[in-house]
């Protein structure tokens, strides 16, 4: 079953690389009592993710936060080393959270996993964005094609805020 608007997020723990090294971050730490934009990508450093999806959120970070959002996070089924390298390479380190759902546990619990084994990627996350308020999904935008970043892009999220 896929998570829907009005549902509470499942509990999970992610890994994130910070300036002080790797840390574990729980869903409670990220979402409890906060208004957060979460977007997910099939893979760090992949073309659509790096050229279209992530840049929109980085470029519009201040506009999103100005609309009453406490935090922004990107999630991928990658390890924390890869997510940390992507944060550094993209200039996003310290601006948004780069969350590693390394075993796809959270992604599968949401029902937003997809098998991209045919392309050599294995189990990954579908591309989506969510507005989450105090752990509850307020908006959900899932792309039909993993090569697109329009429905789940920053411009759409800004309109929904």
From TrEMBL:
One GO BP annotation of this record: cellular response to oxidative stress
Thioredoxin domain span: 3-161
GO molecular function: thioredoxin peroxidase activity
Source domain of life: Bacteria
Keyword Mitochondrion: no
Pfam families: Redoxin
Family membership: Belongs to the peroxiredoxin family. Prx5 subfamily.
Descriptive protein name: Glutathione-dependent peroxiredoxin
